Amino acid sequence: MWTTLSFTLTVLSLVLLSCPSSDSSRILVVPVDGSHWLNMEHILRKLHSRGHEITVLRSAKSWYIPENSTVYTSINIRMLEDEEDLEVYNRMLLDVIECRKKSRFIRSFCQQYEITKLLGKGHEILANSAALLLDDPVFMKKMHDAQFNLMLTDPGMPIGVILGSYLKLPTVFNVRWINNGESHFAMAPSPASYIPISGTELTDKMDFVDRVKNVLFYIYSQTELQFLIYPAYSNLMERHFPPGTDLLSLELSADIWLVRADFVFEFPRPTMPNVVYIGGFQCQEPSPLPNDLQTFVESSGDHGVIIMSLGTFVSALPRKATEAIAAAFAELPQKVIWKYIGQQPTTLGNNTLLVKWLPQKDLLGHPKTRAFVAHGGTNGMYEAIYHGVPVVGLPLLFDQFDNVVRLKERGAARIVEAKSITKESFLEAVKDVVENPSYRENVQRLSRLHRDTPMSPMDTALFWIEYVIRNKGAPHLRAVGYSLPWYSYFCLDVAAFLLVILVALVCKKQQQKNKKKNNKKTLK
Amino acid sequence: MWTTLSFTLTVLSLVLLSCPSSDSSRILVVPVDGSHWLNMEHILRKLHSRGHEITVLRSAKSWYIPENSTVYTSINIRMLEDEEDLEVYNRMLLDVIECRKKSRFIRSFCQQYEITKLLGKGHEILANSAALLLDDPVFMKKMHDAQFNLMLTDPGMPIGVILGSYLKLPTVFNVRWINNGESHFAMAPSPASYIPISGTELTDKMDFVDRVKNVLFYIYSQTELQFLIYPAYSNLMERHFPPGTDLLSLELSADIWLVRADFVFEFPRPTMPNVVYIGGFQCQEPSPLPNDLQTFVESSGDHGVIIMSLGTFVSALPRKATEAIAAAFAELPQKVIWKYIGQQPTTLGNNTLLVKWLPQKDLLGHPKTRAFVAHGGTNGMYEAIYHGVPVVGLPLLFDQFDNVVRLKERGAARIVEAKSITKESFLEAVKDVVENPSYRENVQRLSRLHRDTPMSPMDTALFWIEYVIRNKGAPHLRAVGYSLPWYSYFCLDVAAFLLVILVALVCKKQQQKNKKKNNKKTLK
């Protein structure tokens, strides 16, 4: 059965991807910079190969999004930018490490507060940048004249959402984060009883205390939305959109949400008809390693290798932690390949190779790879699942804590805390993940389930993007509930009305009773 | 783009359907009789052609489910049966026609009460029939020994749900109705503010009065569940399942819900990760018509033909209604093919052909067909959408009222009331649907959207059935919320706790204030 399906899928993929689309369409893309761009670029390449004309709006100062590309035409836009750089995150990391010394209950709030400080300023900058565009008649005429068929955007930063709504373009989101949480919180019912709010590090199985924390966190995040994030855009909304429009209503008018999630990783939860899951769409089969790496990996013998990458943050790990990690690695029988930038640890063993960059998918897909030491970024977690490699999570910031909790809950990861890392604790965790077969078995089961789909996540993404183009939107998949005020959505007006009727009926009955009594008294 | 996809889908379908599955599996099927069986049988044929061994449990007295088949082995079970027959529905039809003379607000409650009367008795019979099976050691040993890999059942009648849970089999539902409503109400959040409760004839766009009605109907249907339906099974649950088990918890333990719905027809609403939509999976391209029908159809010239079928109920339509319909048809320039059993109407025109049976899909798929006069059964509605034929709805019972409302809301149908049908009103409605091009345009747009999927609904059903077999279930897609008590699910316990804390804090503050005041007074 399985082989039939595999064959089918291969045929499907080949057919889908080799044929350029017959009618060309014009797609306007507003990506989010940084690691989000890697995701978006991957889709753009495929869309380009299928004959679509792609225009990318990029900040003139962007480091990640190339100005010149064979895949797309870019338009430089003026983005008000923060003087933010990696230093912001490095400083934040130290604050977060302080937070993590607090109790389990408190630390999530402490960490979220660190994020709140960034969010306020960030959204103000984004709103002003969007206003610069809408207020620029030359730019807007160019946009109108281009007659785009689709807005494809990552609403993690809402400039694309605002511009697409203003231009009344059918819209597809390539999304995982929106506003201040995971995308479902904006568009699907999310009972706080079993759906952990982003940032809580809770699972879907919560005891009473967990649920108290989750509800309080829900209140915190709603407060953040209502008093910090949405108001940042209110001036822009008033000037350019019909009365009553807010950022959320623009977001909810998207036609299709391509959500970068898969329920082998996310906890199962309510979803909506216009949500399509493409988690892991960036994963690919490994290519052969460069010669030097291949020689190094092969030299590991039966023990195999361990891969470590913490993204761009490693230079900010406290020196003590780096030394502890290096010392622990030195005691392992495995070889280690460590993506590392900065001063070489004094405790580095002969078995450990420091590299400035590593071909992550090719190493994770290599049969000799035994474990992946990672900070818990979403892309890395899906790659670990795709290639079936167990994880030692060393989460540092943002969603990384939640991400590694998801893999741990499924028995596919151990978590090590940066705040208290020692050679011993790290060594014990790595040894456990490498030597205890359950981690490997669990992640490989996840891998089988993740790959067991009628269509690959990338082909699914392409299908729905083209679906929205050829059908000029997908309003029949959008719930009417999105346009209701909150008191109507929850039927609080109806409840109040029924309560009044009930009270009136009870009072009337009481009156009649009293009357009867009085009549009786009179008769007496 | 579209042609590429079509080609892909064809290749996919051919590959999927031509290859028998490599590992055979044993599937236990508990269908629902009647029109539900037609749906199930269609899937069973495909599963058989893919090499699965199928065992069907049927009532020894079943009229619809053949005992002997080349597709499956059947096992006769003793079903306690009602003396119910078509007469029950005929009597009910008259009661429902009475209901429909009441106001829009009231009539839904009146009709639902007619259904309630059937439901109570029906579920008692079903519970006792299920008990007969579980209490029969010879039958149960046979079931255990057969080592089935899957329970495939229509939970419209829950014998398969109960037996599958008892045997601890991975379970797939082929479902549209469960307990007393459309299947989503049992397993997905369903805000009453925009999701019309089954039986209300409301759409997703409700004004305040509509929402009051919907909330009251919600309360009615919950009462029916809690005090009529679930209690019917409580004795069975106590004797055969762990404490705390009820019918709902067994239903919610299904691995995959293949829901016979599509959002070109249903209003968009929250859904769950283990729900897969297969609405219209029974639809097929038309075959050529039998010679006599083909001649009749061709003789209609450019005017075309109108098809009428009211399922098995037409003999029960009041004589007056039948005469009015026949008289209206007689005035049309179209030819009419009418599935009709009973005494020939005196007003029958020369253009109208009465038949005892008609090849519905072949007629609906014929280019000369202009309109479909139908009672609004789900299968017929999906066939109308699939073939792009506008509908004149003449709903009589059950979900038919809701079904035609859905097509009307999308501009693809007119509704005629059986309670007040006259020649004039019927003629006006049919003429409107045939002559006003908007009905045809709308239903053809629905048809395009319905067919615009990465995989056909039938292939989707087969994929997920085999998915559950090869993965031995799909618990990772099942939400934890299903196992929470209702007060925890809605966080009412947490709300109460937080309220207590808040009150305590306020009281304490007040006390301190008073103390201060007193101290001040003392000082004075």
TrEMBL record, chains A, B:
InterPro entries cross-referenced by the UniProt entry: UDP-glycosyltransferase (IPR050271), UDP_glucos_trans (IPR002213), UDP_glycos_trans_CS (IPR035595)
Gene Ontology cellular-component annotations: membrane
GO molecular function annotations of the record: glucuronosyltransferase activity
Domain of life of the organism encoding this protein: Eukaryota
Keyword Nucleus: no
PROSITE patterns listed in its UniProt record: UDPGT (PS00375)
Subcellular location: Membrane
Keywords: Glycosyltransferase, Membrane, Signal, Transferase, Transmembrane, Transmembrane helix
Membrane-traversing stretches: 486-507
Enzyme Commission number: 2.4.1.17
CDD domains tied to this protein: GT1_Gtf-like (cd03784)
One Pfam family matching this protein: UDPGT
Topology relative to the membrane: Single-pass membrane protein
Catalysed transformations (reactions): glucuronate acceptor + UDP-alpha-D-glucuronate = acceptor beta-D-glucuronoside + UDP + H(+)
Signal peptide as annotated in the record: 1-24
Family affiliation: Belongs to the UDP-glycosyltransferase family.
Protein name: UDP-glucuronosyltransferase
Organism: Periophthalmus magnuspinnatus
